[in-house]
Design a protein that fits this description.
Layout: H1 4-11, H2 13-16, E1 21-23, E2 29-31, E3 41-42, H3 43-52, E4 59-62, H4 64-84, E5 91-96, H5 103-113, E6 119-122, H6 125-131, E7 141-144, H7 150-161, E8 165-170, H8 175-186, E9 191-195, H9 220-232, E10 239-243, H10 253-271, E11 279-281, H11 305-323, E12 329-332, H12 335-339, E13 343-353, H13 369-380, H14 386-405, H15 411-434, H16 440-449, E14 451-455, H17 459-462, H18 464-469, E15 475-477, E16 487-492, E17 501-502, E18 515-517, E19 526-530, H19 536-539, E20 550-556, E21 562-568, H20 573-579, H21 584-602, H22 606-620
Helix pairs in contact: 4-5, 4-11, 7-8, 10-11, 13-14, 13-15, 14-15, 15-16, 21-22
Length: 628
């Protein structure tokens, strides 16, 4: 008898869900935005509510309270470590805007982070323009990273005149004199940071972001030369931050320990030169456990947020005490940890493909011998002979193809033969499961027999990191988890591209190549893609001109009632055409000319012409995804 606990174990939801996600007794996916068992959102109820409001899928759900919860967790972890290890400094979080630049996300982070003096980090002029519009707390930092031209530096220095606490980080040596010259011209004294290029590297997919070949950062020689130049400009008292970054999603805690110790030694050696360094910015890298394995695999991290904070604080304190220098204010740019959990993409399944396993073959008596042999094999295969019959079926299929290519059998014969072959394979896989036969033959066959579930979404737009780097994201059914899933499948999108398929799934000990799913019935079937709040929103592209998804922002009150805070409409066809530089007025005028020409030359009636024109205009204003 299938129980809800079986679904929890199968999908691993309580291993990677961090207390935010689970299934209820009705089999529905639930969200606890505050990790409180009295404040629970049944996502299927929300989905049904939006269906009744005629909000089309796919829909990206945002849970702003999860952002608040993660900010609280991160600050709490560092507060605990600082107290436990008797660290004499403090901690301030920084949210890097590149992780998720969406206005609604940044607004919530700024609001929730105010009590913790949480700041923002930018890496471009556009991000800086956005960040300058937010009302940060007086002690919050606005950190400027990335490559900088004079216009970027001028803009950042102007932000200081508005009483913003701006830190301009020297990411490459050539920025040093330009920054100091423009600051001198504007009579502004910026807080200056230096990004150190450490020998230490991170681990996982982004390990090459750190180390001696890193894109950003100053070598030891460049740091010393930079300090010399800053001294010449009488700005040494403004050099207040040391920054490093060894890569995103660091999977191994020992890499973090090593980097912090190396950077702490750099900090201490600068500090003893009577330089007023007071901020120690450890950058990003705090990992998310996407697969729930708590290992150093690319989709996981072998540490918790508390263990991360403990290692940073302890390692930094140890070096500072050895060098007899003061403990700096610790900064971290932990964007992935803050934003990953708050977004859930829900896609509706259009249907699936199974290669004709459900079709019935009836023989008339006049079929070629190869068909009768396959038919007899299907009738006679059993748990004792399935291995032999499967291998025989492989030979029969080769013969079937050979006969067809020689012109000796018809299309109808080939069709019957293929159906019979795959039905034999289906039975063989079933017997292999019963006998726990884990040979490669039957593992591979199981994958071949899996169905392709057609999801109304674009991989390239909504989960681009899967397509680009095979980043794993948890995927679960929104409902029916109280039923045992009887099918295996991959998830294909509706783009005209074979790469638009999710065929790798999280698992505790390995990576699944097929996912356990339910047989489709007459009702709607929804899947949720989780932990996509970091990077996916702005990395997503417009392949096939599929645009951004509709959004629903959901919050829950103290009594446990949920409500929709905001609906943000996704892109319409006219929007994405505009991104591709099609002028909508020009399109309408051009199409109207085509219609008028058809009236004149082809006898199209004026009524038909008007209907065609109205249809064109209406579709221009519609959602880019299928209306199903």
């Amino acid at each position: 008898m299938w129980k809800i606990e079986d679904a929890v174990e199968l999908y691993g939801i309580e291993r990677w869900g961090s207390g935010y996600f689970s299934f209820n007794r009705n089999g529905n996916l639930i969200i606890r935005p505050t990790k409180n068992d009295t404040q629970v959102i049944d996502l299927k109820n929300v989905v049904d509510n939006l269906v009744s409001k005629k909000i089309n899928f796919p829909i990206l759900f945002r849970f702003p309270q999860i952002l608040e919860s993660q900010i609280k967790t991160l600050n709490g972890a560092f507060s605990h470590s600082i107290s436990e290890f008797k660290y004499n400094g403090s901690y301030q979080g920084i949210f890097p805007m590149k992780v998720n630049q969406r206005k609604e996300v940044i607004e919530e982070i700024v609001k929730s982070g105010k009590k913790y003096n949480m700041g923002l980090e930018v890496g471009t002029k556009a991000e800086l323009l956005a960040a300058m519009s937010f009302d940060l707390s007086n002690d919050a930092l606005l950190i400027c990273n990335g490559f900088k031209d004079d216009e970027y530096l001028h803009l950042a220095l102007n932000a200081i005149k508005l009483n913003n606490k701006v830190v301009i980080v020297i990411d490459e040596f050539t920025e040093t004199k330009r920054l100091l010259e423009i600051a001198k011209q504007l009579s502004v004294k910026p807080i200056i940071g230096i990004r150190a290029k450490l020998y230490s590297k991170g681990s996982g997919k982004w390990a090459e972001s750190g180390g001696e070949s890193a894109k950003f950062g100053l070598s030891t020689t460049e740091i010393l030369e930079c300090i010399k130049i800053i001294r010449e400009y009488n700005m040494l008292d403004q050099l207040q931050m040391l920054h490093f970054h060894i890569g995103s999603q660091i999977t191994e805690i020992r890499r973090i320990q090593k980097a912090v110790k190396e950077a702490a030694r750099v900090y201490a050696k600068i500090k003893v030169k009577h330089i007023n360094i007071k901020y120690f910015n450890i950058g990003g890298g705090l990992g998310i456990d996407y697969d729930g394995s708590k290992t150093s695999s690319d989709a996981s991290a072998n540490y918790t947020i508390q263990e991360y904070a403990n290692n940073v604080v302890y390692s930094l304190k140890e070096v500072c005490d050895e060098e007899n220098v003061s403990h700096p204010i610790i900064l971290s740019e932990s964007g992935r940890a803050i934003s990953s959990y708050h977004s859930v993409l829900v896609i509706n399944i259009k249907g699936n493909k199974n290669g004709g396993l459900n079709k019935t073959v009836e023989l008339s008596g006049n079929e070629p011998h190869i068909i009768t042999e396959l038919y007899d094999a299907l009738k006679e295969i059993n748990i004792k002979n399935y291995v032999e019959f499967y291998h025989d079926a492989l030979l029969h299929r080769e013969e079937l193809l050979s006969l067809f290519n020689l012109g000796e059998i018809e299309l109808e014969d080939k069709s019957m033969g293929e159906i019979l072959f795959w039905q034999i394979c289906g039975k063989a896989v079933g017997f292999a499961k019963e006998t726990q036969n884990k040979s490669d033959d039957f593992d591979d066959l199981n994958k071949l027999l899996s169905k392709k579930y057609i999801g109304n979404f674009s991989v390239f737009q909504s989960v681009p990191d899967f397509w680009a780097i095979k980043q794993l994201f948890p995927i679960v059914p929104v409902s029916r988890n109280n039923e045992k899933p009887t099918e295996y499948g991959t998830i294909v999108d509706i783009t005209c591209d074979s790469d638009g398929e999710i065929d790798k799934f999280v698992d505790l000990k390995d990576v699944k190549e097929i996912l356990e799913l339910h047989e489709l019935n007459n009702g709607s079937y929804y899947l949720a893609v989780l932990l996509i709040g970091a990077y996916q929103d702005t990395i997503g592209d417009y392949h096939n001109l599929f645009g951004s998804a509709n959004e629903a922002h959901i919050i829950i009150d103290e009594s446990g009632g949920w409500h929709i805070k905001q609906i943000v409409n996704g892109d319409r066809n006219c929007d994405v055409l505009g991104y591709a530089k099609y002028n909508n007025s020009y399109l309408l005028a051009g199409f109207e000319s085509e219609v008028n020409q058809a009236v004149i030359e082809s006898g199209l009636s004026k009524e038909e012409a008007e209907e065609i024109m109205n249809n064109y205009k209406n579709v221009m204003k519609r959602y880019t995804y299928l209306d199903i």
